Amino acid sequence: xxxxxxxxxxxxxxxxxxxxxSCEQNLNHDAMYWYRQDPGQGxxxxxxxxxxxxxxxxxxxxxxxxxxxxxxxxxxxxxxxxKNPTAFYLCxxxxxxxxxxxxxxxxxxxxxx
Amino acid sequence: xxxxxxxxxxxxxxxxxxxxxxxxxxxxxxDYFIWYKQESGKGPQxxxxxxxxxxxxxxxxVTVLLNxxxxxxxxxxxxxxxxDSAVYFCAENPYGNxxxxxxxxxxxxxxx
Lengths: 113, 112
What we know:
The complex is a heterodimer of chains A (113) and B (112). Chain A has strands at 4-7, 10-13, 19-25, 31-37, 43-51, 54-57, 64-66, 76-78, 87-94, 103-104, 108-112. Chain A has 113 residues and is mostly beta strands. In chain B, β8 (86-92) and β9 (101-102) form a beta hairpin. In chain B, strands 1, 3, 4, 8, 9 and 10 form a 6-stranded mixed beta sheet that branches. Chain B is globular.
């Protein structure tokens, strides 16, 4: 998937548990993104980061947290505050300049036990 | 076509025919548009993009048309193949930067 690796492929969360989704890229891209995809819906932006040690909220950031300590890594934590976490989560990266395509990982399916 | 499964608009097309997928975008300030293809359980794959200073761009078996007057984007796939069965998303850049906004997608089903 174009140098972006997401893990795990499938993840299960128990009530009240925080879980972390991994996203690593070896494309030397500055910008990284997390999207949530629900059945019958488009991709909705959770968080994005334009540069190391900086990130911004997207459209549906509540109940999620991120960090960007390294250029190649952008992990997403789904906290217990996210009451409806079941979804397909997609990580993407881009060079960071305007009008450039995003490269996506293969996704993580998160389900609630 | 009928709506199936994920309640997405669905286009059923005979193998070998041409497909046309339509997308209405929301922001007249958007100046960059992309089409992605997503197969079940996988991440979206880039197909083709177009900037607002163009109204047509061609790739391998695909053509994107942009009508800024009515804020409409279309993707044409020539000689549709079974491997073209997927969900197709359009995206625009309403914020004028590298942050994209995605449409809800169109399901394409190729009938052998």
